[in-house]
Amino acid sequence: MKMKKNIVLLMLWIVAASLSACIPKEEQKPTFSPGCPYPPKDFSSSNLVGTWIAGRPDWSDTLIIKEDGTYKQILHLRSNTVTYDYESKWQSWWIEAQSNSVPYLHLTGYRVCAYWTEIGCDQVGGGKEYWTDFCQGTGTEVPGGGVLDGKGMQMPNEGILLIMGAPRTAEFPQGVNLTLLKRGIYATWTFLPSIRE
Predict the structure, then answer these.
(1) For residue 104, what are the β-bridge partners?
(2) What is the pLDDT of residues 116-166, one digit of tens each?
(3) Is the dihedral of CA 57, 63, 65, 71 positive or negative?
(4) Using an 8 Å Cβ cutoff, are 73 and 85 in contact?
(5) Which of 36, 160, 166, 184 would staple 135 via disulfide (CB 3.0–4.6 Å)?
(6) Residues 138, 76: Cα–Cα separation, whole Å
(7) CA atoms of 116 and 21, how far apart (whole Å)
(8) pLDDT band for position 187 (50/70/90)?
(9) What separation in angstroms does the CA of 57 have from each of 25, 52, 60, 63, 143?
(10) Using alpha carbons only, how large is the chain's radius of gyration in Å?
(11) Is 6 in a helix, a strand, or coil?
(12) For residue 139, what pLDDT is reported?
């Protein structure tokens, strides 16, 4: 009797595996890249519209993203040695799908100085430094993106943020967060959605 039960369970598993192989490839989107959760299945560019904040009250980087494909960056940086306030004009943004990682959010004219203080706030983008998509590692070609080699990717005139999935909660109503490509051993720089009223 136990043998029959095991055979029945094995047959059910084989049928389930066979049926899942029949799902068209476009519907078999992975839910995780090698290191990061993908955005929810119902994700669209409208999930990014709104205000996103990284940092803390005395050292903040705010993005205001509009549905028309423009965004504004507001920096408010205060420390014993730094006092800096900056508000950009409206600049373009766009999303790039990745085959081996989460999607990228490209921010033309983005300034990275709130995250990496070794770059001056007058510099646009990450310069000639190398940045890492920690969701996929390095050594992978990025279609339409920056130069990616064994060291990482360059983003000379822009910022590139990873669009990662997050559980839908009061803190993450859109089901995503935005994280700047990582610089060396520095911690990540993650933008959280501002609570909408």
Answers:
(1) 96, 162
(2) 888 888 999 888 877 888 887 553 334 344 444 455 778 888 888 889 888
(3) positive
(4) no
(5) 36
(6) 32
(7) 45
(8) low
(9) 45, 13, 6, 14, 36
(10) 21
(11) helix
(12) 39
